[in-house]
Amino acid sequence: MGHTQGANGDGQNWSPDSWRSKPIKQMVEYEDSEAVSAALKKLSSLPPIVTPTEITKLKSHLRDVALGKAFLLQGGDCAELFSYCSDEPIDSKIKLLLQMSLVLIWGMNKPVIRIGRMAGQYAKPRSSPTEVVDGKTIASFRGDILNDFDPANRTLDPERLVSAYFHSATTLNYVRGQLASGIADLHNPLDWGLGHVRDKDLQTKYSKIVNSISESLRFMRTIGADTAGQLHTVDLYTSHEGLVMEYEQALTRSLRNPGGYTPSRKSSDGKGWYNTAAHFLWIGDRTRQIDGGHVEYFRGIENPIGIKVGPSMKTDELVQLLDIVNPNKEIGKVTLITRYGEDKVEAMLGHHIEAVKESGHIVVWQCDPMHGNTRSTPTGLKTRHFSSVFSELSSALKIHKQHGSFLGGVHLELTGDAVTECVGGSEGLAEEDLSLNYTTFCDPRLNEKQALELAFLVAGHYRE
Ligand code: PEP
Ligand code: MN
């Protein structure tokens, strides 16, 4: 294994397993170590799910985002389940991300880069290792990659690591197939389904946007502006939280770099280390400790990476983190995913923007308006108010502008299905409606209508 000198100046070598020498949060303690070894051996022998060429292509797109030349839309489930690996939920998610991106392109006059929280978003950090279900204390559900949601079966099962690989690969295979077969073909009319919008003014506003997009597409088709086939399909990249280090390590490979790409950390033979499980990975807010195993792992891979930035992040800590994971200050290598909450964003974001500016790092700033705005209903259901989500996003847009910075993207928990998990939006979902179709296994997601509405509102912000 080609060990290399640590670029963060701490004199330590990095290798795909050097995270093991550091303290690690959200640790996975299996009982059967032989079964774990067998699963990891199997994973290590399987082919990459994504390739260095795709990874570096996304990285160069994110450089454009960091420089204000493009916008990043990232979305998907909080916890993706193996059972979502099925045609309908995948189709509806592709369509939703496509429609949202068209609205954003229309609003911002910039290309939009799409990343799904899918094809691998199977691991969940938990605030407590146990929970009480029907009066009994049992292990928390930690995502399909680790244990079963069924309260009767919460034991950690190493075979799930291998199953996660196959569900990721199958999901991405279907995504690739559908994209190549024209699911995102803009020659076909799109069904925007705005019938639910009760407010007349909003209905008019959204219809105008849709008509404008449809007109533009019709015009392009008529004049034959599609010579290179750009209207036939779009790119969709994959991402997940890099949480279960055993899994990520097994999918981390020393591979030849695409032409023209110089890796930031060469392995002994000049190759780079790529996490081939997803194009983009992020470090969660619970596992971003400077001295922790997750940060250690992340500093070695060539992939573009995200760091969740919650209200407890100190400004000097943020800059230290950037220096560790991106010592060469590659533009757009790191996406800072801010998630303070609507009531905290004003007090925090400006300081973070200034500190990063001063450090000389040029990052992608992305707003996750979901995770700081989770509330419980009196009956104990986790929900989020559409108005809080929009409020944090609007504040972020405003604060970036005030600081001469650019909000480069949004990070959303959403689904293409008609769930009732977040309240508010044009459909007027109330707390009493939540039980109608509350199906998330972790955090509440925007449904298709709410997600599209958020895109309309952001686009409107830029057009006004
Ligand atoms: C998530 O994105 O689902 C998540 C757990 O976020 P955070 O790390 O920001 O809490
Ligand atoms: Mn979540």
UniProtKB/TrEMBL annotation:
Keyword flag Oxidoreductase: no
Coiled-coil portions: none
Positions annotated to bind phosphoenolpyruvate: R117, K308, R339
Cofactor: binding details: Binds 1 divalent cation per subunit. The enzyme is active with manganese, cobalt or cadmium ions.
PANTHER family: PHOSPHO-2-DEHYDRO-3-DEOXYHEPTONATE ALDOLASE, PHOSPHO-2-DEHYDRO-3-DEOXYHEPTONATE ALDOLASE 1, 2
GO molecular-function terms, A-Z: 3-deoxy-7-phosphoheptulonate synthase activity
Similarity annotation: Belongs to the class-II DAHP synthase family.
Keywords: Amino-acid biosynthesis, Aromatic amino acid biosynthesis, Cadmium, Cobalt, Manganese, Transferase
Organism of derivation: Aaosphaeria arxii CBS 175.79
Lineage, highest ranks first: Eukaryota, Fungi, Dikarya, Ascomycota, Pezizomycotina
Pathway recorded for this protein: Metabolic intermediate biosynthesis; chorismate biosynthesis; chorismate from D-erythrose 4-phosphate and phosphoenolpyruvate: step 1/7
Protein name: Phospho-2-dehydro-3-deoxyheptonate aldolase
EC number: 2.5.1.54
